[in-house]
Design goal:
By secondary structure, the protein is of the alpha/beta class. Helices cover about 50% and strands about 15% of the residues. It has an eight-stranded mixed beta sheet, sandwiched between helices. A seven-stranded mixed beta sheet has the order 10-9-17-14-11-13-12.
Length: about 650
């Protein structure tokens, strides 16, 4: 294989025993470096761990690598365990972090860990897991980090090298193999120059200002039409096209607007219909209304893809897109996260999205994560990125910053969980604070922020002592149980200590797990609950009041998540053998969300099953429950086996 300059350089360092961080644009060929590590380790009987930020990417890597390396590949993602003794194990970063803490001896056979999308350490919700796994990394393991954008790569690498005293090299490739061209839709016209865009938007704003308050300032004189833009892309040989929008419902609505189009020739229409029928059979989707709704779009070369869809239906759409027969796909940003789905053109419906708690303009890094899907290496000589612009919704300087500015620095999001702290305390006792200086947060932070971090860690330990998780510098039984439950340790440990967890029946246990993992959306309403579910809800609310009161007293933030019982009736129906669609009628969640929460509940059951303090009776009860919850569409392993 003929490698590019940056690929050859990275592989040379790897052969010489160095850890390597590679920053190169999306589509530049970073995966080839990872494949070299896999091949060389398999040849020398060494183990490799491949971590990914989301399960969809883990699943895709499992399928891709399995084609070439067969039984040498395994996967562990919490709800999936296939070939777990394989020399190459693909897993989410949470699973890898948990293994470092729970069973470090089991990692001795692995000489490398590959972090795909290593900049995810900057993720506000889950970045701390990346940081913990990197700072606690076993000394014998080397690191290959892959990312499109880490502008402060020198700082990041110096931190990692200083913590582990490892020889570490940086490879930066700024040139894309397929250059990108940026174009804009404004006033329903396609503009390919930023200066011309500024003039057009300035003239529009002047017209509105002249007309005064009698007009709606947000109404465009010539509103941008999706059909106009898609016609332009099609006429300029810009297909296939990925259209990013940040609303699940809008993805489906926009796809529906194109029903008057037909992007396929007769032979292509026959091929895609046959392929879709085959995928429907393979994934057992023939009875799913959502698959039937997609069919008329698929026949015209149109599709959509978002987290509210059934996982198997999403995968079917992905396979249709990689076939080259799906010409336009409307999708949310998760489609851009590492999943290898390039196109010739990318369209942004708007340049604002929801960031955790509020809507704001896109980060430059996120823009390029998505824009980088334009231009297929080895197929296209150039890629096209279109942004739909309404000057009353985005300032021109902000637009310039998003598209032409420097990507944001990758910063620490360190916020150690109670379970991690309990593990560290069990190992280091009162010296647990010596771990903090190993963090990226410590490396980056000023004196004030370091003091705040030390204070928060001390407060968390003080809380754990006050609440009975630590006594006389030792973990109590409750503390040991909590150390094996990541993310939901307090509520489950309190229920464990007072005997409730042991005494709940199967239905109550399932309702509890779903309530613990469920995150209500803005307009979700709590359904009428059965007497048993109400009792369970009241019990949890009383416990959470005590927990939150204590956390507030110790000034701990963010507070622990409160259980929400919106899925109680749906879970009851599901474990009693109801079909998925009858179960869905009891929930306000999208079908993809319901599957996700049921899978998360299954994963939580597996953590309790593996917990060293769970009783025999509790384990037997959970063992009977798992097949009831992890069946049919919820069974993630079945989805992987269907390939």
């Amino acid at each position: 294989m003929q490698y590019d300059r940056f690929q050859a350089e990275a592989i040379d360092y790897i052969k010489r025993g160095h850890s390597v961080i590679v920053c190169a644009p999306t589509g530049a060929g970073k995966t080839a470096i990872a494949e070299h590590v896999l091949e060389s380790c398999i040849a020398s009987n060494q183990g490799v761990i491949y971590t990914a930020p989301v399960k969809a990417l883990s699943n895709q890597k499992f399928r891709d690598f399995q084609k070439n390396y067969r039984d040498k590949i395994g996967i562990l993602t919490g709800d999936v365990s296939l070939n777990p003794d394989a020399p190459v194990l693909i897993m989410t970063t949470e699973i890898f972090r948990n293994k470092i803490l729970d069973e470090p001896q089991g990692l001795k056979k692995f000489s490398w860990v590959i972090y795909d999308e290593i900049h995810y350490i900057d993720n506000s919700e889950r970045g701390t897991v990346w940081e913990e796994s990197l700072m606690l990394l076993p000394a014998h393991m080397r690191v290959l980090g892959l990312s499109a954008t880490v502008p402060n790569i020198e700082e990041f690498s110096q931190w990692l090298s200083s913590v582990h005293h490892m020889p570490l090299k940086i490879i930066v490739e700024k040139n894309r193999p397929v250059p990108l061209h940026f174009r804009f839709q404004a006033q329903n016209k396609i503009i390919d120059d930023f200066k011309d865009l500024r003039k057009a938007c300035f003239a529009q704003c002047l017209r509105y200002e002249y007309r005064g308050r009698r007009q709606d300032f947000r109404r465009e004189a010539h509103p941008n039409r999706v059909i106009t833009l898609i016609q332009h892309v099609r006429q300029n040989n810009g297909l296939p096209c990925i259209y990013f929008c940040f609303s699940r419902r809008r993805c489906e609505e926009l796809a529906g607007e194109l029903l008057g189009f037909n992007f396929l020739e007769n032979d292509e229409r026959e091929k895609i219909a046959g392929l879709f029928d085959e995928l429907i059979r393979r994934f057992d989707l023939g009875h799913e209304p959502s698959a039937s709704m997609l069919y008329p779009l698929i026949q015209r070369g149109i599709g959509y893809h978002h987290a509210g869809m059934l996982p198997t239906l999403k995968e079917a759409v992905e396979q249709l897109f990689t076939s080259g027969l799906l010409k336009v796909i409307f999708t949310t940003e998760t489609f851009a996260l590492g999943i290898n789905m390039p196109a010739r053109s990318v369209i942004f419906d708007e340049l604002r999205k929801f960031y955790g708690s509020y809507v704001r303009n896109l980060k430059t890094r996120d823009f390029y994560q998505m824009a980088g899907r334009a231009g297929r290496r080895g197929i296209d000589t150039e890629g096209f990125v279109y942004s739909r612009i309404n000057p009353h919704r985005i300032d021109m300087e902000e637009l310039r910053r998003i598209i032409y500015g420097a990507p944001e620095r990758v910063n620490s999001q360190f916020n150690t969980s109670y379970a991690t702290l309990l593990h560290l305390y069990e190992k280091y006792r009162e010296r647990f604070l010596e771990i903090y200086p190993l963090s990226y947060h410590f490396y980056q932070a000023n004196v004030r922020k370091k003091e705040e971090a030390y204070y928060l860690l001390r407060q968390k330990i003080s809380f754990l002592k006050s609440a009975g998780y630590i006594r006389n510098n030792e973990l109590t039984v409750k503390g040991k149980f909590a150390s094996g439950i990541y993310g939901y340790e307090l509520i489950l440990s309190e229920l464990f200590e007072n005997g409730s967890l042991e005494n709940f029946n199967e239905t109550e246990l399932c309702i509890l797990m779903a309530a613990i993992v469920f995150e209500p959306r803005r307009n979700d309403t709590l359904p009428p609950l059965s007497r048993a579910a109400k009792h369970l809800k009241n019990l949890c609310e009383n416990l959470m009041k005590q927990i939150l009161r204590q956390e507030s007293r110790f000034k701990i933030y963010p507070p622990s998540k409160t259980p929400h019982f919106h899925l109680a009736n749906a879970v009851h129906a599901w474990i009693n053998g109801e079909s998925f669609h009858k179960t869905l009628a009891h929930a306000t969640s999208d079908e993809g969300e319901l599957v996700r929460y049921l899978r998360m509940s299954h994963q939580l059951f597996r953590e309790i099953l593996a917990n060293r303090l769970s009783s025999k009776d509790l384990k037997e009860k959970i063992s009977r429950l798992i097949p009831k919850i992890n069946r049919d569409i919820v069974d993630a392993e079945r989805q992987l086996r269907a390939n």
